[in-house]
Amino acid sequence: MADRPLTLLDKSDVLGGLFAVWDDLDTLLNGVAETQWRAPSALAGWDVKAVVSHIVGTESFLSGVPAPEPDVDVKALDHVRNDIGALNECWVRHLRGEPGVQVLQRFRDVTAARRQVLQNMSEDEWNAQSFTPAGPDSYGRFMRIRVFDCWMHEQDIRVGLRRPPADEELDGPAARLSLDEIAGSMGFVVGKLGKAPEGSRVLLDLTGPLARSVRVSVDGRARVVDDFGDAEPTATIRVDALQFTRLAGGRPLCPARSQDVELQGDRDVAARIVENLNFVI
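^ Maleylpyruvate isomerase family mycothiol-dependent enzyme, sequence as received from the core. Prediction below:
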C-alpha cells in the first residue's frame, strides 16, 4: 500500500494556535492555590498538577530531555494503558512532589524554549516527514496534534478548577485547529469504528460557539467530504461542539454546556458512531 500523502499545514497558523493555548494555560494557572493544583482533573488518576506535568514532559521530550526514571512500575497502574501512557506517567510522578508554582515555572520555561525552536524551523523542516502520534506525517501535522492535545488538557484542567470556558474563551485558533484535527479522523471513526454501511452519508452537526458541519460519505471507504451534492444525510448526529471534543477524547461531558446528543435518520448507525467516537489513544 502506498504511503499516505503528507499533511501540509500553514506554519504560522498552527504555531499561532499552539502559542495561544500555551498562553491560555499560563493565564488559567497563574495564581492557582496549591489546593487547586491537587484537585482531580477530568482524567482518571490525574490531578491538575499531573496534567500540567504531562504537558511539561511532552515538550521536554520534544526538546531532547529523557524521561526521568519512575519510582514504581508505571505500566502496572490502572490508568496507564499503553507505552505512551507509561512515558507520561514518568513525568507525572517525577513532578508530583513539587509545588504547583514550580511546575508552572517549568511549563513556562520549556514552552519558551520550544517557541524559539519552532519559530526558527525552516519550511522544509516543517513539511518534512516525522513521527507523529497518528503515524508518519509532516512535522506540521505533529504540531497540530500538539495544539489539540494541549487544548484538550486545558479543558481537563478547567474541570478540576471548576472554571468551564465561556463562549468567548472558545473563540480562538487553538479550538479551531483542535476541531480540524478531530474532524480529519472522522472517516476512520465513521467507517472503521462505527461500521457505517456502504452508501451512508453521515452529518455531524456541531452546535454552540464552535459550530461547524462535518460530513462523512461511505463510498468504497469512509471519507470526509465538503458536501453530499443534492443528497440528504442518511444519519445525523447533533451535539454541542465542545461536547463533541469531549466524546472524541473519551472524557466526561462539560457540565456547563448542553448534554444533549440528538440522533436523526438511521439512528442505529448514528448511535454506533457516537459509542465509538473515542478514538484518542
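The chain has two domains: 11-163, 176-275.
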